[in-house]
Amino acid sequence: MVLEPGEITRSLTRIAHEILERNKGAADLVLLGIPSRGVPLARRIAARIAAVEGVEVPVGALDVTLYRDDLRQHPARGPQPTELPPGGIDGRTVVLVDDVLYSGRTVRAALDAMNDLGRPDVVRLAVLVDRGHRELPIRADHVGKNLPSARTERVMVRLEDTDGLEGVWIR
Fold first, then answer.
1. What is the pTM assigned to this prediction?
2. What pLDDT, on the 0 to 100 scale, is given for residue 22?
3. Which of 36, 106, 108, 153 is the most buried (most CB within 10 A)?
């Protein structure tokens, strides 16, 4: 295990503080989790922001399945619901939240999906794990852990909310 449950908690707390510092508070902030594990991570970050700022940050889900450019190489899972918070994303600071940043293709798909839903002022990216090997010029603004790995290895994030256990493993 490369990240224990306590380390995940500390990483998300640090990310929440970084988001608040960069945004100068919670005003006009929206967190959009990318299913499946980005959504519970976004909710956890929002809870930490609420604990610090006393403000509920809107959280939504942004499914990118139909916007991916690599569907032929990877079997697609069924589309998940996209749920925008009340007030939408127009003119807001949107922080996309995902579990692992790898090639950058999921983030590119998320940017395309957002274009169909509105026009935020600023889009930032928060990830629990950045494993490198980018195929597109995409960089996370907030990273829980940089985890260099071989292309042949697999980084697995498991969360109590979705999987019944918590941790990050490399296999």
1. 0.95
2. 97
3. 106
Distance separating alpha carbons of residues 55 and 82, to the nearest angstrom: 23
Cβ neighbours, 10 Å, residue 165:
9
Sequence-ordered strand ranges (E) for 22-141 = 29-33, 59-61, 93-101, 122-130
Are 166 and 160 within 8 A, CB to CB? yes
Please give the average per-residue pLDDT across 87-110, as a whole number.
Answer: 97
Provide Rg for the chain, Cα atoms.
15
Confidence of residue 74 (pLDDT cuts 50, 70, 90): low
What's the length of the chain? 171
Q: In order of start, what are the domains of the chain with their CATH numbers? A: 5-71+80-170 (3.40.50.2020)
Q: Which residues pair with 98 in a beta bridge?
A: 127
pLDDT band for position 140 (cuts 50, 70, 90): very high
Could you tell me if 42 and 32 are in contact, meaning their C-beta atoms sit under 8 angstroms apart? yes
